[in-house]
Design goal:
This protein is an alpha/beta fold. It has a seven-stranded mixed β-sheet with strand order 3-2-1-4-5-10-9. Strands 6-7-8 form a three-stranded antiparallel β-sheet. A hairpin with a 2-residue loop joins strand 6 and strand 7. The longest helix has 14 residues. It is globular, with a radius of gyration of 17 Å. The two termini are 30 Å apart. 47% of the residues are buried.
């Protein structure tokens, strides 16, 4: 896993209040709604706590938040970065939220597991190939109870990742891109695409690299790791209040319409079958 976020925490958090981040947040709340009430949740790649305390607000009984970056973990511990202002105090997080510094790509039994839900925001896009992805999915399966769900926000489902990125660049070109972030191709790899993410802010630039593998690779490797239940992909869904001009983040109607045309991300949900 990458420690790139150690150096970009400030600029990254500056960008996260943009409209597309709020919309992502709403889409994840909808995806988790059927499963989160009373759930014990493992959050992989928690970052600065964009979701961490909201899981408690949405009904989870406990959260173990894991990340490889000590800088991000400390920010999350100190109060998080929820786009709707959820804080440890507002959800009485004492005894309900714990943090662990660890590499989410390495299979390890975490304390308190197995969990009802394993959640990973922008985790799978750091796997450069099948082997690394298999390590991630084995870690997920290892910590997920039978009948539990893995829920992830990740790159859009696409069998030709280059076409997906080119479509993104066409409808949301630099410098604004998607909520202040834009992309370019580093080079193609065996299982997909290696690309760069860039964003400019008054507090510094966001710069990091990640991967967009083929949809079939994510699905096949998840099955190989033991996640063999129902699998579904969701895409960017812009809630009606944004289209009415009532949503947070400042996106124009034109930008919002592009998300309906070309998705910015995928929402992957996989059930672990009961043995």
């Amino acid at each position: 896993m990458s420690t790139q976020y150690n150096t970009i925490q400030g600029p990254y958090d500056y960008i996260r209040p943009k409209s597309i981040a709020h919309i992502e947040h709403e889409n994840i709340r909808t995806a988790l709604a059927p499963y989160i009430k009373g759930a014990r949740l493992l959050e992989l790649a928690c970052g600065s706590g964009f979701y961490t305390y909201d899981f408690i607000a949405w009904g989870a009984s406990s959260v173990l938040a894991v990340d490889i970056s000590p800088v991000m973990i400390e920010q999350a511990r100190q109060g998080g970065s929820s786009p709707v202002g959820t804080t440890p105090a507002s959800v009485d997080a004492q005894g309900k939220v714990d943090f662990l510094l660890a590499d989410c790509a390495q299979a390890k039994r975490y304390p308190g597991g197995p969990f009802d839900i394993v959640f990973g925001a922008w985790l799978l896009n750091y796997a450069p190939d099948r082997k690394a992805l298999l390590d991630m999915f084995r870690n997920i399966a290892h910590n997920l109870r039978d009948g539990g769900r893995f829920v992830s926000i990740t790159v859009p489902p696409a069998e030709i990742p280059l076409e997906s990125l080119e479509a993104e660049l066409k409808v949301r070109p630099p410098p604004e891109g998607s909520g202040g972030l834009y992309y370019w191709v580093n080079h193609e790899v065996e299982d997909g695409l290696y690309f760069h993410v860039k964003g400019h802010t008054p507090v510094g630039d966001v710069d990091f690299d990640c991967y967009h593998l083929r949809q079939s690779v994510y699905e096949d490797v998840a099955r190989e790791a033991g996640l063999k239940g129902k699998l579904s992909w969701g895409k960017t869904e812009v809630p009606a209040r944004w289209l009415r001009g009532e949503g947070e983040g400042g996106a124009s109607k034109e930008e919002l319409e592009t998300y309906r045309e070309v998705t910015n991300y995928g929402v992957l949900v996989i059930e672990k079958e009961v043995a």
